[in-house]
Amino acid sequence: MDYFIDFYDFGQDNLGRRVMHPAFVYDDQRSCSKIYTIFKLMGLLFYSATLSTCNKSYLYYFIIILKLISTLNCLRYEHSHYRRYGTVFLSISEFERWKNEQLPKSKAFFSIAELAIKLVFFVNTFPPQFEFRNFCNAGESMLKIHFMSLSIIYIILGVFSCCILFSFSYNDMQRMSTASSIQLQHVSLLPIITVTNNQNEECCICLETDTIQPWSMLPCGHKFHGSCVSTWLNAHHTCPVCRSVF
To answer: Where are the chain's structural domains?
Structure first.
């Protein structure tokens, strides 16, 4: 549906990146949206002919009225796009401005409302029983099958989306871990010399004059506490004093 994905006429710049032409002809066939609208119209006709024969609850009439409004909204939206087919838009902002005037989010709103009312119907008739002895039973059964099918599709899409997000997060963690490992290897390969410091000299990293813990000297000749310089080199590749690159 078009409130998830829109297809535009993209070109490429000198670097091969996809870009929108400054002026373009709107030539989207919107085939998927048209098929979706046709199915909604068929569903409206079917449920109007079957559920209207039931005398059990006003919930059925509410379902039919909501589907009627949703279907009319889809027809309105598709007709507005059909009328602009072949129109030259001067920029993407002009196209977006025109599209926002068509209230594209209304389709999502009515789809969510339809799903909610179907959920209420499914809960009221749980556990589901499927009978096709008359028009009323056929409408109820098809509505239950419809809701169950949509639920399965949404669950699969939700799991698939979570897997993709987890994959991206895992790859980012792997890249960070690899970068950290490379950094640690770089630190371990540095020719750090362990030295003694009997003078009252201050470590410029921690600003302490502790002479008990071991001191280390970098290739540039500057001395620091061993633990301090190791921590420093885990995050930097330079000497804290002279900024020599290692």
So the answer is: 10-156, 177-235
